[in-house]
């Protein structure tokens, strides 16, 4: 039943996430670009308010009773849905224009199966669809429909760079969490914090930085006529995420030095005695903050970029592709672990025992991938034109 519930959550959230951001931005149809940018900032801000609550209050409730801990979010979601529907009469609503996916697949099918004459005369692969006729002799697709698909395909290379970025982001809840477990968790005498709590610093950093950028930094840059395009912001975000992972690698080198010098302690994790370096887990905070800054620049701007560059009839589809990169980033991270462990056998880098692992080499490998991704993104950006 647990897996069924998780599957249902994935299905429902997939339907919500790709549409809610588009629906929200649609309410600013006649607003300025600055107002739309501000919407995406505050939209992401609200997401992290929820994240902060889940890492603190909800986690506290779940530590006492899972039924209450899961029931409260369900109740809040139900109440929020009621308020959402109560405002229905005030929303800008744009009716769906049919199945976008089926239209895309149809265009691709006819491009592949076009006659030799069409293949020869069409200036590009997708332009073949502009010359396909039905049995009555009329064009099967409108030029606008084909051009929309061309615009979508043009966005895919840019979105592909988000895969590495989300892979770096996923380290907060995986390898960085493992790293924190084998560091000193006691902050004050008789007071320790769970490593997962440090993810709250990521959300806290975002909650501080987003209003600062939205109300102070971006307006000042605009008054100084300094160009800060979406692609430039995304690139800066990639840089901060990569630097954060590099810092985590350096921290791991430092942690290992404590182990080699015998500067260790034993602490209990879920009742299990665990040997850890006598190095405070608070040293992980800069890595979590760095990834948070990367989110402010890259992830928030990614929502804005996806909406502004998507064809008018494909905005939810493009946001869905943008969200898909999150899943692909997580899967890519799993693939990286598999590859580095296979390459480093019989002494794999990531093992069940963190103190016998080489998490430093793993973090540095991700850093190299992040750097390569930045160079690839810069090359794509140099060829991009609105």
From TrEMBL:
GO molecular function: transmembrane transporter activity
Compartmental location: Membrane
Signal peptide residues on this chain, from the entry's feature table: 1-18
Primary site of residence: membrane
UniProt membrane topology term: Multi-pass membrane protein
TM segment ranges: 42-61, 68-88, 192-213, 234-254, 287-308, 320-341, 361-380
Pfam families listed in its UniProt record: PTR2
Domain of life: Eukaryota
One Gene Ontology cellular component: membrane
SUPFAM superfamilies linked: MFS general substrate transporter (SSF103473)
Sorted UniProt keywords: Membrane, Signal, Transmembrane, Transmembrane helix, Transport
GO BP, sorted A to Z: oligopeptide transport
Family to which the UniProt record says this protein belongs: Belongs to the major facilitator superfamily. Proton-dependent oligopeptide transporter (POT/PTR) (TC 2.A.17) family.
Protein name as annotated: Major facilitator superfamily (MFS) profile domain-containing protein
Organism expressing this protein natively: Arcella intermedia
């Amino acid at each position: 039943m647990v897996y069924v519930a998780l599957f249902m959550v994935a299905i429902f959230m997939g339907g919500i996430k790709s549409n809610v951001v588009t629906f929200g931005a649609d309410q600013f149809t006649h607003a300025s670009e600055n107002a739309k940018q501000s919407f995406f900032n505050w939209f992401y801000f609200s997401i992290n308010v929820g994240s902060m609550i889940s890492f603190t209050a909800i986690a506290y409730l779940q530590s006492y009773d899972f039924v209450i801990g899961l029931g409260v979010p369900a109740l809040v979601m139900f109440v929020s849905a009621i308020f959402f529907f109560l405002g229905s009469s005030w929303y800008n609503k744009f009716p769906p224009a049919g199945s976008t996916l089926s239209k895309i697949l149809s265009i691709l099918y006819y491009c592949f199966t076009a006659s030799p004459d069409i293949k020869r005369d069409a200036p590009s692969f997708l332009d073949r669809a502009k010359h396909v006729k039905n049995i009555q002799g009329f064009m099967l697709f409108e030029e606008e429909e084909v051009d929309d698909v061309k615009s979508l395909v043009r966005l895919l290379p840019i979105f592909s760079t988000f895969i590495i970025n989300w892979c770096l982001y996923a380290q907060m809840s995986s390898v960085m969490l493992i790293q924190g477990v084998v560091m000193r968790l006691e902050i004050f005498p008789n007071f320790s914090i769970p490593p997962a709590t440090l993810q709250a610093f990521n959300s806290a950093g975002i909650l501080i930085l987003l209003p600062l950028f939205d109300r102070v930094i971006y307006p000042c840059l605009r008054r100084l006529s300094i160009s800060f395009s979406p692609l430039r912001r995304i690139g800066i975000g990639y840089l901060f995420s990569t630097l954060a992972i590099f810092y985590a690698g350096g921290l791991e080198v430092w942690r290992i030095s404590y182990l080699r010098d015998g500067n260790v302690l034993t602490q209990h994790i879920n009742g299990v005695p665990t040997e850890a370096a006598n190095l405070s887990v608070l040293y992980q905070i800069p890595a979590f903050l760095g990834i948070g800054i990367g989110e402010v620049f890259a992830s928030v701007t990614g929502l804005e970029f996806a909406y502004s560059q998507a064809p008018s009839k494909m905005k939810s589809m493009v946001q869905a592709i943008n969200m898909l990169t999150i899943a692909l980033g997580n899967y890519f991270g799993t693939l990286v672990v598999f590859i580095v462990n296979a390459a480093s056998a019989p002494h794999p880098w990531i093992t069940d025992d963190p103190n016998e692992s080489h998490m430093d080499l793993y973090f540095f490998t991700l850093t190299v991938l992040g750097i390569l991704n930045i160079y690839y993104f810069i090359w794509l950006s140099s060829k991009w034109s609105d």
